[in-house]
Amino acid sequence: MPAAAPTPKAVLHQRFGTNARYTVEEVREAVGGCPGLAPQTRSVYRCALELPGLSVATPGTFVRKKDAEQAAAQIALDKLGIQPIANIPSTPEEAWDELIARISGFFIDEKFLSSTHPLVGHLSVTLRRTGDLIGRIPLSAIAACDVKVNTLCKVIDPKAEFDPLLVLSFMYNAAKQSPGVLVSETNFWIQSQKPYSPEAVDMALKRWSGTSDPVEVEAILVPHVLEDEPKIVRVNLRDNEHYMSYVAEKLTASDSSHVLVSRTIGKASSEIRLYFAAPNVHFVSDISKNVLACHGDGDINCQVNKRASYISGQTIYGDALLANIGYTRRDSELRTEDVNLCTYYRILLGKLPDGNCKMSRDAILAAELPSVYSRFSWKGLSPRDLLCSFCRNQRLSEPLFAVSRVSCGMITSAASSEERGAPAKSIENQQNDDVRTEEETPDSFKCEVKICSRKQETLVEYSAADTWSKESDAIQNSSLKVLIWFNNYFKQLNTKMDKLYLSECTDGFKIHPNIFLQEFAMCLSVYGNTGCNDSGTCSAVGPFSMDTPEKHLESTTTLTNIEGPDSGVFPSHGSLTCISYTASLVMKDKAKKYLLESHNEFEFEIGTGAVGNQLESCVTQLTVNQAACFVAELPPKDLILAAASEFSHDLSNVSRESCLLEFFVKVLQVTEPLEDRMEKALFSPPLSKQRVEFAVQHINELHATTLVDFGCGSGSLLDSLLEHPTTLEKLVGVDISRKGLTRAAKSLHQKLSKKSLVQATVPTAVLYHGSITDFDSRLYGFDIGTCLEVIEHMEEDQASLFGNVVLSSFRPTVLIVSTPNYEYNPILQRSAMPNKDDEADENAGPCKFRNHDHKFEWTRAQFQCWATDLAVKHNYSVEFCGVGGSGEEPGYASQIAVFRRMAHNVEAICLNKDQDQPYELLWEWPNASIPV
């Protein structure tokens, strides 16, 4: 397959290097809004490019920085008349001829010594030698320095991409046929056939000064025996000798020509490679019969190093050395950098589906792969970038994204209604609904993802059931689904089972088990044979579901030493929360404490699983400017060493039983959930306040003395009612969240305490912990019940159950229920601030739910059908109105149903106080103290 042409930036970098200077300017431009709402702006970028003798700039703007830079680079290429061409032979025969010519060119042309090719560094060091050794370098040095040689070997035989030993075989045979070079018959040395001129040698020695002083470099020895742990070794480079000689000493190879080198690992700018000794092999010169054979079944050097092979994606034999040493085009000196255990385990971490998420956020111990994607709150690399990075690290093909447009005609069906996020309608409701025309309802998008091997064999296919109003959202959300699937798969490596099992179809996924397991055989081999429980590994994969388990945050983390006064501003579900934290490994005997990880400002969204369960539990118990400590579950040893850059050597032998992981956390800032921010920005007064005013109006009209708020959460409605003059004498709140009720108790206690000082009478207030779908006789027959923006957080069947229970058993005189109007979402979407990386789409269709925690959002017709059925069934009347907007098409932003009990529906019911009181009394004013 012909290689793809390089990008414009890559072509310029090859020509000009650091002399190509890009200046990106960020500007703001207006985007379309909704009549009556303030105009919005977004960030866009333009780029100027400076080259020696040429300056260009993009005439327009781009929503992504990298697009602006590529556009400027393309303009420069057009002006310079440079056409990027992938100059790679298409047949093995052509590649073989070019490989011979390329190896020969390194030695027969003395002008090569004046180039910036990294191989010149190797040659310059060896030109300091005398006698037969002058200019002699290992063949593997060419493979390490020259990408073109490796590419030619892959064309000759695709297996060469995964086997450095096969590359060495091709190079050895090609070198024998290359004019102007000499190769050893017994070793793997190569050198020029004729001596270099004194002028050429002098030029090379001046250009490449080599190592002037002894240098000690840390490296990691990766044993081929899985039971042996990787360990730090030190390589001493001295006397201007070729560095691979010292690597050979550490590997006990006969000489440096027997040292093989893997491809670079990790970042492209890095020189981190795996070095290993070549096993005993014989070479067949005939290109059609290149065969490598290991001699002797018991030869330890012939054994595959599974860990090293998994890291590099190539076949590594025997013990291997992970080191960062080499020559580059950017530096004439030998480049060295320590590689410690932290580096090694971070490389391993990058192979995991959530590894790059952790590292892109620089929070290995704190960050997790979020369960949902939001353009407005996602932090770190995007799901698409994470998936592409995962596939590259696993040596898979780039993910294939197939985006399809879903026409509005399809959305009118019940099934498509479920796909876009709205609940399916009954046949009767479908007939009564006003079906929008194609012109009124723009199309939406679906995205299918396919993951293939390098051989283009399909491993995993995902077909999204959801549709999205923006093409980019469809891609990002489908990417996240695939990432979560892979993450669940890798986590199943923790569970030992007798046999491998992989379901072929589950939750929109189609798996090809045989190909999948074959592609991940090395992964299973590495993780399946360590015999180390605390590294989270095992020998088999079990069946699993895509359903992400709910995080039980009610069993809160135990906090110690809470510092700072209660500010009243606390993180809630959906809020963006900024914290500072430190994570330290503490010895149980308090003898030592190691700081593993710290962040001065770390932002995440509550409820998305973007941090560990215990950390989120801690944060949601604090208010802004409060801080606390807690002891967390000890993570796997791999994660500890990946985080411990400074202490990785000290911690490598520490026993898990002797230490604890301690977090110190401070809440710095809380930004309200996107839904609340939009409501405050787009509505005056905010929708939440309008809903309170709506409730106050009905309280006073009814002269109500008792009120129960179903799903009171943190008590925002109850708290707000205390600010208004009403006839209420008793306020009751019910919620399933104990933490929310605790916050409500603190807030109400503080406010009622102040009221009691200036008023003779204040309302009685009670908070109950329980489910609003369960009946409790203590709340029977209240004057008014409220359930504001609650039912959409329940499953639809639970919302119906609540409606039946409240009207048949609780039986308030008036019940007020509010919920988002799904038809109003497009207005909010067009008015929301676009993401920097997304283009504004004026024709975008209905957006997704206002909050990722919503289980459904109803249209006006669906809400009215639900409420009308309940009213008829339980002898209530119902009227509809709302708040937010004018009430004209597409209706109010928040739709409201007011149920009124019919006059002849006032008979009492028989109450069993012993059996009908499932709620737990959590707090009561003025009798109880504040819960903790």
UniProtKB/TrEMBL annotation:
Transmembrane recorded as keyword: no
Small RNA 2'-O-methyltransferase Hen1 La-motif C-terminal domain mapped to chain residues: 216-351
Keyword Thylakoid: no
EC number: 2.1.1.386
Record region (Disordered): 419-441
Residue stretches in coiled coil: none
First-level EC class: transferase
Catalytic activity of the protein: small RNA 3'-end nucleotide + S-adenosyl-L-methionine = small RNA 3'-end 2'-O-methylnucleotide + S-adenosyl-L-homocysteine + H(+)
A GO term, aspect molecular function: small RNA 2'-O-methyltransferase activity
Methyltransferase type domain segment(s): 708-805
GO terms for biological process, alphabetical: methylation; regulatory ncRNA-mediated gene silencing; RNA metabolic process
Assigned keywords, A-Z: Magnesium, Metal-binding, Methyltransferase, RNA-binding, RNA-mediated gene silencing, S-adenosyl-L-methionine, Transferase
Swiss-Prot/TrEMBL cofactor(s): Mg(2+)
Highest taxon of the lineage: Eukaryota
Pfam families given in the database record: dsRBD2, Hen1_Lam_C, Hen1_LCD, Methyltransf_12
Residue span(s) of domain HEN1 double-stranded RNA binding: 353-490
Record-stated family: Belongs to the methyltransferase superfamily. HEN1 family.
PANTHER family: HEN1, SMALL RNA 2'-O-METHYLTRANSFERASE
Designated name of the protein: Small RNA 2'-O-methyltransferase
